[in-house]
Amino acid sequence: MDIPRSFLEELKNSKKIVFFTGAGISAESGIPTFRGEGGIWNKLKPEELANFNAFLRNPDLVWEWYQYRRKIINETKPNPGHLAIVEFENYFDVTVVTQNVDNLHRRAGSKKIYELHGNIEKNYCINCKKRFDDVDFSNFEKNVPKCDSCGGLIRPDVVWFGEFLPEDQFEASEKAARECDILFAVGTSAVVYPAANIPYIAKRNGAVLVEINLERTDLSNYANFSFLGKSGEILPEILRAFLNYRKL
Ligand code: OAD
After folding, report:
1. Pairing of the two strands 154-158 and 118-125
2. Are 180 and 22 in contact (CB under 8 A)?
3. Per-residue pLDDT for 47 more than 80?
4. How many Cα neighbours within 13 Å face the side chain of 66?
5. How confident is the model over 82-99, as a mean pLDDT?
6. Which one of 82, 105, 117, 155 is the catalytic residue?
7. pLDDT at 78
8. 185 in ligand 1 pocket by Cβ < 6 Å?
9. What is the per-residue DSSP string for 180-199?
10. Does the Cβ of 23 fall within 6 Å of ligand 1?
11. Catalytic annotation on 105?
12. Which of 50, 131, 209, 223 gets the most CB atoms within 10 Å of its CB?
C-alpha cells in the first residue's frame, strides 16, 4: 500500500488523534456490519428490532436478538485494527469515539473511549431505570428479564432508532473532535446522524481527516487522505510506516 510522505509528516507533527470507528473495524473479528455486503440491515428490519416501540410490542423477540448478538460478540476477540489503535497510545494522545456497542476497543486495551451508541453488555429497567450492568442474564435466552425492584422490562443499554445519544458521551466526543490534530474515520458508512457529524466537526476545526474503509463513502470527498482496504491490515501498516518515518 502506498502511504504518502505528506500523510506521515502530518502524523509526525500531531499530538491528539481521534479514531472514529464503526462496525467495519470489528468485521475482521467476525461481527457482521449493518450495511454493505453481508450487512445485518439487508436481511432484518431495524424498525422491528432496534426501536423502543418494537421492544414494547414484542420484548421477547428483541431481547432474543440481542442475546444472539451478545453471544456472537462474546465469542470474538479484538483484531489487529483494534490492537494497532491501542499501540498508537504509545506515541499520541488517543481518543476512541465509537459507534460500536461490542466493547472490543475496551477489551483490546484502549483507555479513553466514548461510546455513542451504548454498550451491549449493559442493561437497565425501562421503568425505574435501575441499572443491571454486571448481572449475568445468559439464562434468559428467549425471555426478557424483569426488574427485581419494580417489575419493569429490562432492555439492553444501546441506542435505538429515534433515541437520543448519551449526552455526556456525545459532548465529550465533540470536544475531542474539535481539539484533535488528526481524525481517522475507520470502518463506518458515516450515514447515521448525529454520530456522523463527528468527522466533519474535526475537519471544520482544522484537523486532518483520514478515512480507512473497504470502499468510498460520503466522507471520502472531504477526507484529506483515503486508504481503501481492511482496517485490520491498514492500521498496523500505518503504524509501522510512522515508526520508520520518525526515525529518519
Ligand atoms: P455500517 O454497517 O453502516 O458500515 C460499515 C462500514 O465498514 C462500511 O462502509 C464498510 O465498507 C466498512 N467495512 C467493512 N469491513 C471493513 C473492514 N474490514 N475494514 C474497513 N472497513 C470495513 O456501520 P456503521 O457506520 O458503524 O446504529 O453504522 C452506524 C450505525 O448504524 C451503527 O452504530 C448502528 C447502525 O444502525 C445503532 O445501533 C444505533
Report:
1. antiparallel
2. no
3. no
4. 31
5. 98
6. 117
7. 98
8. no
9. -SEEEEES----STTTTHHH
10. yes
11. no
12. 50
